[in-house]
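Field reference: sequence -> structure
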Amino acid sequence: MAYELYYWPSIQGRGEFVRLALEEAGAEYIDVARVHGAGALTALWEAEGVATPPFAPPFLRDGKKLIGQTANILLYLGDRHGLAPKNEAARLWTQQIQLTIADLVVETHDTHHPLSGDLYYGEQKPESLRRAKMFRESRIPRFVEWFESILTRNPKGDSHLVGARLTYADLSLFQIVEGLSYSFPRTMRRELPHAPRVARLRDRIAARPRIRAYLESERRIPFNEDGIFRRYPELDKQR
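Structure field:
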């Protein structure tokens, strides 16, 4: 039975972290809203008979199981498709990295919506300019340095974040680098030379056969200014 992924049909957003894991696993899945429209997403999301309703997309249905929250979905898929370590300590460490990536996703979103998601970017642009400046100068360097340090300290080598095999955290770091490079190209051109292991991991993931095929396919939604990673040149100005 195919997995059913419920996420918005026109953006990568948080759903893209799940899509990458499904693609790498070679798992059969239906991107429900892209196939059947956003109404199919909201119908399940708002259904009164759901005993474990998700707060927001993405959520994944596997038979009778309905799983929400990106990191939680990846933990579930990782265990079932060899994208998570079997050792408990390593599994927890992988999930810790993923939750930190989730923090970074929120901080990225807040550069263009620092006051409220209910306001348009143009209604909070002065605050966005201030928030983005701090994000460029302080937060991006701190996160990138942390990822680089994890790769450096991995006792199994610097090819992966955890152990000697690919995990869902590696796929998610790839997506973070891609997203930040789209939103903040000048900043990432400055920061990535200081994190060569992160840059090499990004290149290795992009070259994996299933991921490469996905990136070249129509299944990969292009970055755009409706998702989390948005390119507003004024937010990436170096001052």
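Note: Strands lie at 3-6, 29-31, 59-62, 65-68.
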